[in-house]
Amino acid sequence: MRFLLVEDSETLARAIVDRLALDGHAVDHAGTLDAAQASISVADYDLILLDIMLPDGDGRSFLAQHRKARKRTPVIVLTARSEVSDRVGLLDLGADDYITKPFDFSELQARCRAVLRRQGGSAANQTSFGDAVLDSTAGTLTTARGTEDLRNRELRLLEVFFGAPGQIFSKTHLMDRLFSFSDDVSENAIEVYVGRIRKKLGASNVRIETVRGLGYRLASRA
User: pTM of this prediction?
Assistant: First the structure.
């Protein structure tokens, strides 16, 4: 998944980016509201992590504008304010969740997973298609051959496909979902990851199908 982190503390931002990268997420960092607006104007994000106090304004104005524009990207607010009224106000503005600073990184990871599950219309960690079961929390894929561990970006790529079976995803779109602006990779990386997950789906009735000139889609074997 691709996240946008809006946080002016370079130290905290680097720690969050590094921790989420361990889960296979691509994270773009914006230190100001202007930089955040520039990022969302050129990239689609699965989740936004939003600080409130920023050098060029209040993150709440960003959140309000985001919802006024009818953008559905989920937002988790990072706030130092613990008063109930502040938290209620953030939720009423359109925040999907919040976490109070200082926080434990494992809690942040768990809240990210929970928000993404809700966004996908599921309260469970497991997603199935055909006879294949993807467990996002455990990072595993289960087929007739058994249960296999997934590398982080294999997991994130499968989450994209399992989230929209039959939908065609271009290499460019998949690049945007898996890699941040700072990642120096080519579209060949997508071919490598698709090749890996095809092998792991080999014992199932599910496959990653190439649609010539367009991209890839998750489909059932005939």
Answer: 0.78
